[in-house]
Fold:
Amino acid sequence: MNRGRDRLLTQLRPQIDDERVLQAMAAVPRDRFVPAALRRDAWQNVPLPIGNEQTISQPLVVARMCELLELRGDERILDIGTGSGYHAAVLALLGAHVWSIERHPALSEQAGENLAAAGIGNVTLLVGDGARGLPEEAPFDAINVAAAATAVPPALEDQLVAGGKLVVPVNDRLYVVERTADGVERRALERVRFVPLI
Ligand code: SAH
Structure:
């Protein structure tokens, strides 16, 4: 029984078609991923501050980005911009394993505690520059970028398997990139707001 969560799911349902994504949004305790003082707002459909001038993304945006990756459960996933670890946690329920990169060590450390508190074990956290991807674990079936780039980072496109998908905000617009047999296909979608990819 969690009224906040039920209300959030009611808000997401008309906008998200993938039932697995809705299940994952219901299963990940977002209240474990926000600072204690903001816990009672955790199930609101809004971004919230998490320190270091960063935010945990809006639930609708997390759900939408996860849906666009079309995950089935067996994917190796790269997540850039760990922040609180929330988005990584949702991805971890939708795929097989998540590698998540954050440039602020303090946020990565807190994310590790948040993921442990939520009982999520299939996420590997790394500190560094995610714009370069993670060549030592590439290729990935899916790549999620939770910070706004100024162009689709070429290193990330290169680290997708054929048929793999990359979701990335570029300036103020969400892009889905799919690697095909002979190149990449980029699609521009709805407007979104994200902190910058540094
Ligand atoms: N996905 C997070 C929210 C992301 S906010 C969540 O669910 O809580 C964007 C994050 O990207 C911030 O924590 C920021 O520090 C990080 N970031 C920005 N540029 C980065 C880069 N080049 N490499 C890794 N992390 C980066």
Notes: DSSP finds six helices and nine strands in the chain. The helical segments are 3-12, 19-27, 59-68, 86-94, 105-117, 154-158. Residues 81 and 101 are 6 Å apart (CA to CA).
